[in-house]
Design brief:
82 residues, alpha+beta, Uridine Diphospho-n-acetylenolpyruvylglucosamine Reductase, domain 2, three-stranded mixed sheet, 29% helix, globular, disordered C terminus
Length: 82
């Protein structure tokens, strides 16, 4: 992941939880496909619908067979794609 990645911790602040819409609006305008880095995994946050559709329908877009998730109990789990 590049040095321009947004740390995932920025998405887990009290301010973000209270009102995430300004942050998402800024990302849609400035960084519609935004790399996100965390200690557990690196990913991309796609903030515009047309970009998300393009990524999901492009057979050349890299995917993994599993994605990280948090279960309702708060423990980390894995969700398998069908």
């Amino acid at each position: 992941m590049t040095e321009h990645a947004v740390p995932a911790a920025e998405f887990y602040t009290d301010e973000f939880a209270a009102d995430p819409y300004p942050a998402y609006a800024r990302l849609r305008e400035e960084r519609p496909v935004c790399p996100v880095s965390s200690p557990r995994f690196d990913s991309y946050l796609i903030t515009r619908l047309d970009d998300a559709r393009a990524a999901l329908t492009d057979p050349g877009c890299p995917r993994t067979s599993t994605v990280p998730a948090t279960t309702t109990s708060g423990s980390s789990g894995r969700i398998r794609r069908r």
